Amino acid sequence: MRDAVHWRSAARTDPGKVRSRNEDAFLDCPQLGLWAVADGMGGHAGGDIASQLIVANLAELPLYPDLDERSKAVRQCLRWTNRRLSEELTVNAGRDPGIMGSTVVALLLEGNRGACIWAGDSRCYLWRGRRLYQLSKDHSLLQRLIDKQKMNIDEALSHPAARALTRAVGAAQELRLEVLELAIHSGDTFLLCSDGLYQDLSGEALGDALSLASPRLMLECLFEGVLRGTARDNLTAVVIRL
Hints:
The structure is a single chain. By secondary structure, the chain is an alpha+beta fold. It has one domain (about 5-240): Phosphatase 2c, domain 1 (4-Layer Sandwich). It is about 30% helix and about 25% strand. It has seven helices and ten strands. It has helices at about 45-60, 65-90, 140-150, 155, 195-200, 205-210, 215-225, and strands spanning about 10-15, 25-30, 35-40, 100-110, 115-120, 125-130, 130-135, 180-185, 190-195, 235-240. It has a five-stranded antiparallel sheet. It has a five-stranded antiparallel sheet with strand order 2-3-4-5-8, covered by helices on one side. Helix 1 runs antiparallel to helix 2 and helix 6 (about 205-210) packs antiparallel against helix 7 (about 215-225). The longest helix is centred in the N-terminal third of the chain and has 25 residues, at about 65-90. The two termini are about 15 Å apart. GO terms for molecular function: protein serine/threonine phosphatase activity. It holds the Pfam family PP2C_2. This is Serine/threonine-protein phosphatase.
């Protein structure tokens, strides 16, 4: 993989302080220029199965030489996983397993190009020039209320179903993915994370962590910040430094 030697990454997951089961999963694969975070839908049977299936299937993808081919392969893989989860529900219908779903956010890097692919509210951030950019946009009722109903964040959060997802792998027959392509600059730092991490940290705290010297130190700072608090959800992060 061209330029893979320049990509340093680290990943970590933690169940948090409240939940007994960790339904998050991650993929940290710098040799393939591929990273991902998947967050199983909390409260549903099989959320951990869904997230683990996503990262396992992504890890098995062949290394295509072109970013466009690789992006297409990731999207096809996620749609195939979506169908697989739907079939699993059909087979187990008598046991009423509920939804087997998961968010996903994946990052592909090749040379000076990158692609972010996601469904749900796990996020991709970019730290560039001492500024933090949120590259992904949440597929959630909260974000829809802000966009469509023009509510402010406090008004939207007061909605009883604000945290409900509007897209996820395994949540519907057809999976709609969002894709963002971008140019990569030397010194760029990316953060992929589940909502259990970013919900408990301010943008300033995220930026302070991502300005540290190495992905390992960044992760230590991020997790320490969340675990000092209530840490009510599973938390997972992958940091990639160029």
